[in-house]
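During the second year of the project, the team shifted from modelling isolated chains to modelling whole assemblies. The rationale, set out in the original proposal, was that interfaces cannot be judged from single-chain predictions alone. As a representative example for this report, we include one of the complexes processed in the last quarter. Its constituent sequences, exactly as entered into the pipeline, are reproduced here:
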Amino acid sequence: MKLDVSKGFLTPATQFPFEADVTLEPQDVNGEMVSFDTVSISGTFLVLDDEIHLKGILRTVAHGACAVCLEQADATVEVNFAENFEQNVDETEAEIFCYTGKSVPLDHMALTLVMLNLPMRFECEGECKSITKYHLQMNEDTMSSCVDGSPTQRPFEALQSLLKKDEEV
Ligand SMILES: [Zn+2]
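Output from the structure prediction step:
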């Protein structure tokens, strides 16, 4: 999927809205295949000094195997992004994407963003998810109990109000 950004070259430093759909091939994630719904991207692009700035939101649903019961599990992936595209850069070296001509290739960016934002593990809806939630809740409870809840004492405040009363009389 290539996004035509020629409008941006005609009118630099101006934001143009865009929407695009990208299809991703299933990916091998730590030995397990993860597939993806069509990735929908919406946002704005802007051309400035031969650099293309793209920002917006990217959404898809990833399908993997539940870490608990190995049934199919879905995970929504939603990423707010802001990425730059430059000409003649080595994508493996720099954290910048490359474009040629007056269009931006979205496949590589979409794949990179989705892979970076995949959940650590998949869990199917229902029992498996509630088991994990329970464990997370337990951790949070032990952490919050460390906070000291005793009210702050301010002896001087009481003294001040006493003095004020004297002045009023
Ligand atoms: Zn499960």
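The first strand starts at residue 2 and ends at 4. Residues 2-125 form one domain.
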